[in-house]
Amino acid sequence: MKKIGEDIYIGSNIISLLNNFTEKFDKILIFSNETIANIYFEKIRTALNEKDKIFYFAIKDGEKYKTIENILPAYDFMLENNFSRKSLVISLGGGVICDMGGYIAATYMRGIEFIQVPTSLLAQVDASVGGKVAINHPKCKNMIGSFKQPYKVIIDVEFLKTLPEREFKSGMGELIKHLFLINNEIYTKYIIDNVEKIKTMNTEVLLNIVEQSISIKKSYVDIDPLEKFERMFLNLGHTYAHALENFYNYEGISHGEAVAKGIIFDFEISHLRGNINQDFLEKTKSLFALFNIDAEPTYIPEGKIFSLMKNDKKNSFGKIVSIGISQDKFLSKIELEKEEILQVMKKYSKNKLRASIDIGTNSCRLLIAEVKKENNSMILKRIIHKDLDIVKLGEDVNKNKFLKETAIERTLIALKKYSKVLKDFSILPEDINCFATSATRDSSNKDYFIKKVWDETGIKINCIPGEKEAYINFKGVCSAITFDKNILVFDIGGGSTEFTLGDFKGIKESISLNIGSVRITEKFFLNEDGNLDFSENNRKLATEWLQTELKKLNKFLNYDFNLIGVAGTATTQVSVKEEMEEYDSNKIHLYMLSESDIENNLNLYLKKIPLNLDIKGLDSKRRDVIIGGSIILLNILKYFNKNTFQVSEFDNLMGAILGGLNE
Q1: Is the pLDDT of residue 312 over 80?
Q2: Residues 242, 255: contact at Cβ < 8 Å?
């Protein structure tokens, strides 16, 4: 274990050190988020001796929850449990939790003590040290806050070994920033020489880089604790970073990733002013590339970037303030000019947001992603926003070939919401790919529906054939999965199911069959009185129909392939098997399911859905069609004699964003 100054302790497996500092407090609040709580609350409880005075409070995980609305329940909890001025807050988590826990301590009864126990790399090298505590305002990050030094900081690098890769990269974004806060190359060389050891979480190297980075930050804090001058240099990259995080509504990008982009933004300004050369800029980019950090600034439209940057707390007298650098690493406070901001944005205009909307038979979905246009193709950089609404547009279309007005209105409500989101993200019409599938193309009034959507939302719908849907499904999957043999991608929709077989060279076979979860439900399980009947006889009739339809896939039997399932029927099987309280895309993506998993789920559905009982992991809006979809899924597995298949979260939405509709 090492000690920096009087209050910061760094080591491996040192969490029990907390006992040395908690005796004099009457109550202890362990403040965290739900993700960390599930992993570490029990470990903390076991490590602390005075268990009778320990209380736990967890909020939802994410930057967007760093608000006054999520702070207030913590105050309520403390008051209800008689926390006093002799009580203690322990912030257990990443940067968001360190900021919020510190803010609670700084403001509860005009201030009580708090200890930082940072669990992420970003929090260990940045957020937990320095005494800046804050929450976000809707218009600006960290706008509401205070300066309050923690009583102690306990940094245990063992926490880092359970970090998701993205969170570790976020920390490296801030850590690399520290290399530009000192005017020597020794630390930089150490980072470069130990890249692999850092990535593989070597304890000795982790201890070293955390200690060095904290020492760098602490040297600035000690000189200028209230950020009057020198400490402001710690904000290198943060003016653009905070603007980008706000632009993204704190979704899809971590703080450290945004800071990496912000550093390159600041260095581009310094390059424009002739203060650094191109080699300096490229070497900086290569440092981030060592850790697979995308440091290229993202294009923010002119109508957005100035208003976002002007809200930054470093500004004064109407000027946009950032940090510049010279060739010899001399840092300076600079005022940004409008034209040079636009010049940098123009240089990175190929890094932009695109959106796709899938208007299906049962659901309506929105996806927004950051892409890079390169050689007339789109490369995915990150997913920013997702949305899904069950609209049942295809209600009774199988029977009467007509979109019902009530179904159209449900869909319009979702599309109006999406239209507002697209406007908030300033996505241009040419970067929006909206497509409708079987329900719309099978209806006699599709032209009326398409025109109504355009008139009321400004969203242009492309009504695509099944073959095109199959193609963009394949394109979406290929962007997410590395494979060395054929894959067969299937998408069980509401009205149809698309099958696309190919390899990394392209598509070999493709077909769309008129079998879907809504279609099979209405055809076999919906009585004339509007009630659902999943009797054994009806399931048998549905299976016989499916077996006949699936014979149209006989040409696929000539190939050896891995089976990949996309969209709602497939992804729901994972969320139900894992009993997810909240849908977790990261856990679902690339999940391997077996035939027995689907059979177990189907038996659960058949047992509980007719009795209107809740099923953990099942969206209530999918209850009516999940049995039909699961029967289709089982029959696909049996037809191809496959015991398993893999689930991909990347489907036609991603394929459309990457250019599929126009190819």
Answers
A1: no
A2: no
